[in-house]
Write a structure and sequence with these properties.
The protein is an alpha+beta fold. The protein is rod-shaped, with a radius of gyration of 53 Å. It starts with a helix and ends with a helix. The relative contact order is 0.06.
């Protein structure tokens, strides 16, 4: 709008110059009588433009819109001063509210008098303010259309992505731009599969080793929750699977609880526990991550027979003392 306004403004200035030249030629030929055909209220010759004739001293001799007796001397007007010096002049004056501006074009006649043609036009700001309501309406309609179209376009874009088969990423028929992503997913899937297979193999080996141990084996976290165990531990502590709660709930013996408390505080702990005429040796080691205890490994040994052997040996020494 600003560009078009500037373009039409230049056109208006050219038209004023052409009209002023035409009127100056007619005035030169016919003299002051040329203005006798002008009617201040219905000026067909001037149209919407204002015609003013000024003598060389700045006194207004004729005006197509106002009574010349009420007009001030025009010698100080920019377009008049320029026309007196250079033969023609142009100026632009804004109204007090800055909503309108007057474009003036003046041309000097052979007798030294000045003929001026003026026209009023709205400023670009006024035109834009007048168009504010339709502009806002157009913006609102554009916003609604944008929301509708963007929703449809995004749905069309996302739908093929939602149908991707990530189990077989290479076999998807979709955008070329997604090919690197699908290739990366396929590589990661293969890597994860290899890692899972390796983890299962190690888990199987670990279970095979621990299940064939006669000693009980427990792995607990920092809150004493049971993570891993073997069948021997369940049998020794008489735990009924599944065992996925705190290990302290399965065995409330003072010695056992003391070992668990010590090891989770970061101290390697050992103690002997007696349950139903059976003796058990408890050995616990803390597990660290950097400087924090994240769990512990507890080994339970059934030492009942060893304890009985020690007791029998003591009884024999008492019965048959050595000299």
């Amino acid at each position: 709008m600003g560009f078009l306004f500037h373009f039409f403004e230049k056109q208006i200035q050219k038209e004023l110059a052409n009209e002023a030249g035409f009127l100056a030629h007619a005035l030169e030929n016919e003299g002051a009588g040329y203005f006798d055909s002008f009617d201040n209220k219905n000026n067909r010759l001037a149209g919407n433009n204002r015609i003013t004739w000024i003598d060389e001293n700045g006194t207004v001799l004729f005006d197509s819109r106002a009574d010349v007796s009420e007009l001030d001397n025009h010698a100080d007007r920019d377009e008049i001063k320029t026309a007196m010096k250079e033969g023609k002049g142009m100026s632009t004056r804004y109204s007090k509210t800055l909503t309108e501006k007057t474009v003036n074009y003046a041309i000097r006649l052979s007798d030294g008098s000045i003929l001026r043609v003026s026209t009023e036009q709205y400023t670009v700001v006024t035109i834009l303010m007048g168009m504010l309501q339709p502009i806002l309406f157009i913006m609102f309609v554009a916003l609604i259309l944008t929301l509708v179209l963007s929703a449809r376009v995004s749905k069309a874009i996302i739908e093929p992505m939602n149908k991707l088969d990530l189990e077989i990423p290479e076999n998807n028929d979709t955008y070329e731009e997604l090919t690197p992503l699908l290739r990366k997913i396929a590589d990661q899937k293969e890597t994860i599969g290899e890692q899972l297979a390796d983890a299962r193999k190690k888990q199987k080996e670990f279970n095979l080793i621990t299940e064939n141990m006669s000693e009980g084996f427990l792995v607990i976290d920092a809150d004493a929750n049971l993570l891993t165990y073997n069948s021997a531990a369940l049998n020794l502590l008489e735990i009924t699977p599944p065992a996925d709660r705190s290990v302290l709930l399965f065995c409330r013996a003072k010695e056992f609880r003391g070992v668990i408390s010590d090891v989770l505080s970061g101290i390697k702990a050992e103690n002997t526990m007696v349950r139903e005429e059976r003796s058990y040796s408890l050995i616990a080691n803390p597990v660290y991550e950097k400087e924090s205890v994240i769990g512990a490994v507890v080994v339970i040994l059934d030492i009942t027979e060893r304890e009985k052997g020690i007791c029998c040996a003591g009884s024999l020494r008492q019965m048959f003392p050595m000299n």
